[in-house]
From TrEMBL, chain B:
It comes from Pseudonocardia benzenivorans. Transmembrane segments: none annotated. InterPro entries: 3-oxoacid_CoA-transf_A, CoA_trans_fam_I, CoA_transf_BS, NagB/RpiA_transferase-like. This is 3-oxoacid CoA-transferase subunit A. Keywords: Transferase. It comes from the Bacteria.
Length: 221, 225
């Protein structure tokens, strides 16, 4: 069954489902700025997931509205957020020790490109007039136990973002485990590319458009 | 030297020399020591190197300091933001130097400076353009880059409450780089919402011990009657 193409909320829901299913006892999770923050909206209240934000907080709550807005309480995207019972605050060196030290179970990041071997490019387009800005992306990419990417499978020009080799400047080497997209979910890494799910496109058509026909071996839908 | 409660923001940044490296706390505007930065603008030190997570937001705080043209170089993790137009213009016209450092390395390099560590190996940025020129070493099968400390001549920090010993308590995510920067600079100036009498802070809850703090200035000072 081909089904339909996933929108960003469908992708976020699939990530939330897998985080919960694969970490039944709860998990410490970092959601990157931008679309990955949508994953939080799909986590059940009893999931046991504790959200980490790089600017020094565990058990971050949803976005703040109205009277809840406090300029001293923001997420990594500088958006005002709330705290949940059991929250903890800590300084930046501790926050990144949590990443680098392998204490986070999952992080979900956006990407410009991911290679079939798991290389990640998500911080810089390489354009000569672009101002480079890395933030915490490189620390997260190599730090979390499992790095998942949430992105569209093709860019606006129709070029695949899941590629044999990244052409954009790298964020991290061999760090991505799984890629969630509008058209499918993929495992990447030392074993190469594996298609886990396909949505809204014929699997053979997907392989052809990706230009990775030979690489698409075992297929599970 | 124990911490000194200053008469005002200008007093807290007095004597800053041209060419200083200034560590500026804050993550966006959360924890940004805006009043101390304004005082540094009035003080007039030039040829500065600024170390901060971002490179200014809007037209106030760090952005206002950059706009004076007295900053030679910015060391930060994330300069480009929706409202970083002051920095963007300076950078695009070649009037400011930029060293981009991954956020965790930025924090850890200052932590190392404050802790007397000569250098350390970090796995962050291996295989990326930011690894260029750095010593690479394999330890137990994992690849690392050699990272050096970042020392400040001056740190400007915002905390919530200080006591007269300079012990600090922060508020929520405004803590961010404050405790690390407080350890890493020769002179540490802190703006707080209020100063309380010595003994009024629960010692178990002190985040930055006063040993790291040199100058404190309060928006509203609580004085003994």
């Amino acid at each position: 069954m081909i089904g339909r193409i996933r929108d960003k909320n469908d992708i976020a829901a699939a990530i939330a489902r897998d985080i919960t299913a694969e970490h039944p006892d709860g998990a410490y999770v970092n959601l990157g700025i931008g679309q990955p923050t949508l994953v939080a909206d799909h986590l059940p209240d009893d999931s046991g997931v504790v959200l980490h934000t790089e600017n020094g907080m565990l058990n971050m709550g949803p976005a703040a509205h109205g009277d809840e807005v406090d300029p001293d309480l923001v997420n990594a995207g500088k958006v005002p957020v709330t705290e949940l019972p059991g929250a903890a605050y800590f300084h930046h060196a501790d926050s990144f020790a949590m990443m680098r030290g392998g204490h986070l179970d999952v992080c979900v990041l956006g990407a410009f490109q991911v290679s079939t071997a798991g290389d990640l490019a998500n911080w810089h387009t390489g354009a000569p007039d672009a101002i480079p800005a890395v933030g915490g992306a490189m620390d997260l990419a190599i730090g979390a136990k499992r790095v998942w990417v949430m992105m569209t499978l093709f860019d606006k020009q129709g070029a695949p973002k899941l590629v044999p080799e990244c052409t954009y400047p790298l964020t991290g080497l061999r760090c991505v485990e799984r890629v969630y997209t509008d058209l499918g979910t993929f495992a990447v890494g030392p074993g190469g590319l594996q298609v886990l799910e396909v949505h809204g496109i014929d699997p053979d058509e997907l392989a052809r458009r990706l230009g990775l026909l030979d690489a698409v071996g075992e297929r599970r839908t | 030297m124990t911490a000194r409660i200053c008469d005002g923001y200008d007093d807290a940044v007095a004597g800053t020399a041209d060419g200083s490296t200034v560590l500026v706390g804050g993550f966006g505007m959360a924890g940004m020591p805006v009043d101390l930065i304004d005082a540094l603008i009035r003080q007039g030190a030039a040829d500065l190197t600024i170390v901060s997570n971002n490179a200014g937001n809007g037209d106030t705080g760090l952005a206002a300091l950059l706009a004076t043209g007295r900053v030679r170089k910015v060391i930060c993790s994330f300069p480009r933001q929706a409202d970083s137009w002051v920095f963007d213009d300076l950078y695009r016209s070649g009037r400011i130097e930029l060293e981009v450092v991954p956020q965790g390395n930025l924090a850890e390099r200052m932590r190392a400076a404050g802790a007397g560590i000569g250098a350390f190996y970090s796995p962050t940025a291996v295989g990326t353009p930011l690894a260029e020129g750095k010593e690479v070493r394999e330890i137990d099968g994992r690849t690392y880059l050699l990272e050096y400390p970042i020392h400040g001549d001056l740190a400007l920090i915002k905390a919530h409450t200080a006591d007269r010993m300079g012990n600090l308590v922060y508020r929520r995510t405004a803590r961010n780089f404050g405790p690390v920067m407080a350890t890493a600079a020769r002179t540490v100036a802190v703006q707080v919402d209020r100063v309380v009498e010595t003994g009024a802070l629960d010692p178990e809850n002190v985040i930055t011990p006063g040993i790291y703090v040199d100058r404190v200035v309060a928006a509203e000072q609580e004085r003994a009657a």
